[in-house]
Each structure stands twice: as C-alpha cells, then as structure tokens.
Amino acid sequence: MTNLYSPVPLHREPGAAVPPVRIVHLGLGAFHRSHQAWFTAHATDAAEWGIAAFTGRSTEIAAQLTDQDGQYTLVVRGPEGDSFEVVDSVVRAIPGTDVAAFVELAASEPVAILTLTITEAGYRLGADGRLDLTDPDVAADVALLRRLFDAQAALPGFEYPRTALGRVLLALEQRRRTSTPALAIVPCDNIPDNGHVVREALGALATATSSTLAAWLDSGISVVSTSVDRITPRGTPEDAQLVLDATGVADRAPVVTEPFSDWVLAGDFPSGRPAWETAGARFVDDIAPWEARKLWMLNGAHTLLAASGPLRGHALVSEAIDDPVCRDLVTALWEEDARHLTGVEVDDYAADLLARFRNPRIEHRLAQIALDATTKMRVRIVPVARLERAAGRSAAGCAAAVAAWILAGHDAVETRGAAAESRTARQVADLDPVLGGDAAFCARVDAAVADLTTKALLTESETA
C-alpha cells in the first residue's frame, strides 16, 4: 500500500530534456490529453515535438498542469483493471484567455502544426455546415479583424477575437506578415470532412476581413482531415485519489480513458510532423469511409443514448447500452448506417463498439455527451436519414434518434405559418429543413415520439 501521507508531486526531473514547442493546441481538455498528446508522446521522435496547449472554456486545467510541468497521469481503464503512465508531451499549458501568447506561439517559426479540439459548436457553423457569418460573435470578430488588418495595426492589439477561428486567423495573419513557413492545421473534432470544413470556414472569415490574407491561405496553410476515437469521460475528483493510492504520485490533473485508441489522418504537413504512425496512427488518401463509420456508428450511437438513456433512468453509457430498449434503438440505427458505409468493415466494428460501451469501469456520462446535442445530431444522424430517404426507405432508426432528441428537450422555433405544420415538423425543420419538409419522415418521428414516451414510463424488466 502506498504511503498516502508522503505523496510525491508530479514534475520533471531537474535538468531533464524538454521537447521544443513545435505543436500548438487549442482546446486543452481530457480528450486531447488521452489522444493527440498520447500519440505524440508515443511517437519514436517524441523528443522533437513538444506541445503548447491552450485551454478553451476553462483556465483551471492550465494552472494545474503548469504546477506539474505539463505532465499528467493517464489511467487506462480496461474491464479487468487499470494501468498508469505519465504523459509528458505537453510542455506548456496556457489559459485560452491569453490570446497574445496564442498568437505569438502559433505564429512562431518552430511551430509546424496547430491541432484543435474546440467541440463541434466551437466552429460556429450553420445548418449548411458553413461558417455562420450571422453568429453575433463571428460578426463581431469580422468587424474587429477588418479594423486590425485594414489599419495594419500591430498584432496582437488590445482587443481580441471572441471565437476560436477568429483567434486562429489572427495568428495566421501574423505568420503571413513574418513570412513564417506553412502551417498544418489539424482539426480533431467530430465534423464530417473536418479538414475541408475548417479550410472553408477560415477562407470565409479571411475573405470577410482581408483579401490579402485570403489569398495567402492557399500557400500558407494545409488543413488535414482526421477521424479520432478514444472514449474519454470527464474527470472526477476521485481520479486524483485513485492515482495517489496506486502510484503515490500527487497528480491534480489525471485523465481516465479506455484502452482503445484510433487516429486516421489525410492531408499534407508542409513543415513536418511527428512519426505518429509509430504510435498507431494511420495516414490514408481517402478518410471519408473511416470518418463516416466512426461519426455515424460510435458518435451517432452516443448521441442517441444521451437522449434516450435518461428517459429510461440511466446516467452512464454502460447502463444505457445494457437496457434492451436503448440497445434496440442503437442496433436499428447501425443497420441504417451500414447500408452507406463502403470500404470499411462494419460488423466487427459494431461488436467492438458494444464491448467498449459496456465497459462498466468507464463512467462515460450521458449528460456530458448531450452537450451541444443539436449540432451533434446534424452531423451524426441527419446525413444517414437523408441517404435512407433518398433510397426510398423509412429511415426509422434515424427517426427514433430524432424522436429521442425531441423528448430530451428540444423546443421548436415558432415561425410564421407555424399553424399550418405540426409541432414535430417544426422541430425536425429546426434540425434539418429538408427532413422537416418530408411529411413521411416527420410522421415516422411522431410515431417514434409516442412509442418512446410510452417506453420511458416502463421499467427495463417490463420491456426485456
């Protein structure tokens, strides 16, 4: 038993070599530390690639990691037990509010890669998947950046963009002004064709602010598409005690994750990259099938469980997937997904997902997954529903997912002429106008709402 009265603080040994900062990350959280930082630490050339990571919404983790020289314990939680390792690829942890430091580092010549985990909602996309220039924060950033760029003001100024992409564009303008070598931008959020989407969003923002910068983007950046996968629950206060008990190390910022990890990338790295493939990453020419499989099957099932599970009284993924009602909903969704996935194996993947979801030692909370539910539904459920309807099928599995989303609390936006259409149709139209105009699909959603409402009142034993 570890002596809990003499905990050892987590820190780097005096004189230990620290990798130079060549990667800047925006969105420092548990997933980045279990995934991209872990892959970087396990690459054979890890000593050459340090990460300077900026927080997104919270600044607390930056202070915690700074006290530990950027190091943290990764707890890999399998069904049979835990393993522990210290990950040291993050060499600087900085609050996201320090935009000046972000611009300085992201624009510096040694930095070759900018990775992003800012959540789907952080990109400020509209229902069409493009940058929403009417978003109040995006509009404010356009006005601010136009003033800065037109005046050729020194960067950064006293006022900073509000959005993540606005801050990225500010750093890119600094790279342009200093003729810094091309930067690879690597979005690691669950957006279909995320590299293309982010490239288009940055282009739209640049076009709205500086034609010079917009033209420079063609040679100044490469945007890499990715598919990322590693279930990583939000941390709890008990995690630190677990690490202390098991290792004797006082770690204020441990991360708990599952054994499985996957990273698929497609795109160019004009200024170099770590040998991530030596840690298990895959580099492919066409990421679309890998991305769709993961986005629709894993993330889509998570979104469905996050909506349906609480209706059945569940708080965790592992609880919900063991409920026959919820599991049947997931199975129906996967059957529809599989019809539109070519070039990748589906049956074994579904079996692996069930095993991963059922791992009782990973406390993946449905409330965490339910955040930004509308945005997630648009990229995880809507595309398959459209494909199914285009093929002349009912899309019943997708309709049930939409019904669960409605029951989880989505309210229709009242619009002119609303009396002429059902409330369900308005709710579906808020999610996707095409599906909202599909009377047969909306009727299917209506029926699923009634069915789930009934089942939400039943116990698991009554439906087994």
UniProtKB/TrEMBL annotation:
Which Gene3D superfamilies does UniProt cross-reference here?
Answer: N-(1-d-carboxylethyl)-l-norvaline Dehydrogenase, domain 2 (1.10.1040.10), NAD(P)-binding Rossmann-like Domain (3.40.50.720)
The record places domain Mannitol dehydrogenase C-terminal at: 286-407
Oxidoreductase among the record's keywords? yes
Q: Which residues form the Mannitol dehydrogenase N-terminal domain?
A: 22-277
Which reaction equation describes what this protein catalyses?
D-mannitol 1-phosphate + NAD(+) = beta-D-fructose 6-phosphate + NADH + H(+)
| Keyword line | Oxidoreductase
Record bears the keyword Nuclease? no
**Known InterPro entries for this protein?**
6-PGluconate_DH-like_C_sf (IPR008927), 6PGD_dom2 (IPR013328), Mannitol_DH (IPR000669), Mannitol_DH/Oxidoreductase (IPR050988), Mannitol_DH_C (IPR013118), Mannitol_DH_N (IPR013131), NAD(P)-bd_dom_sf (IPR036291)
Which Gene Ontology molecular-function terms are recorded? mannitol-1-phosphate 5-dehydrogenase activity
Q: Name one Pfam family in it.
A: Mannitol_dh_C
- The protein's name: Mannitol dehydrogenase family protein
